[in-house]
Amino acid sequence: MSVHKDITKHSTKQNQLVQKFMVLDQERERAIDEAIKLCQAGEAFSTDRINEATQRINTLARQGVVPQRKLVTIEMVEEYAGRLNQQ
């Protein structure tokens, strides 16, 4: 019975990490979309919100359950927005 409880506890913890990851990843994607829109409009933007979410994701990733994400630079946003404008 103890093994079953340990497995259940481990699975629950992993599920909680995945759920946190999904929320943070959505937050990160929203921040990326906002930065791209501002960049395309020629307005000032920052990658601070993107990278804050990224750092929180990478902290979770160190526990081995969820993938890491790359930090985003202003140049990366500008390059991507430029490619979108060319389409």
Sequence-ordered SSE layout with sheet pairings:
Layout (H helix, E strand, L loop, with lengths): L1 H39 L7 H14 L12 H13 L1
Helix pairs in contact: 1-2, 1-3
Task: Note the main attributes of this structure.
87 residues; mainly alpha; 0% strand
Could you give a quick summary of the protein structure above?
By secondary structure, the chain is an all-alpha fold. It has helices at 2-40, 48-61, 74-86. It has one domain (2-86).
Task: Describe this protein's structure.
- The termini are far apart.
- Helix 1 packs antiparallel against helix 2 (48-61) and helix 1 (2-40) packs across helix 3 (74-86).
- The protein has one domain (2-86).
- The protein has 87 residues and is mainly α.
- The mean pLDDT is 94.
- 15% of the residues are buried.
- The protein is 76% helix and 0% strand.
- The chain has helices spanning 2-40, 48-61, 74-86.
- Can you tell me the residue ranges where pLDDT is under 50 for at least 5 consecutive residues? none
How does the overall form come out from the CA principal axes? rod-shaped
Summarize the main sheet.
Answer: none
Q: Mean pLDDT, nearest integer?
A: 94
* Structural class by helix and strand composition: mainly alpha
Count of separate DSSP helical elements? 3
β-strand amount: under 5%
What is the H/E string? Answer: HHH
Distance between the termini: 59 Å
Number of domains: 1
Count of DSSP strands: 0
Radius of gyration: 17 Å
Can you give the helix content as a percent range?
over 70%
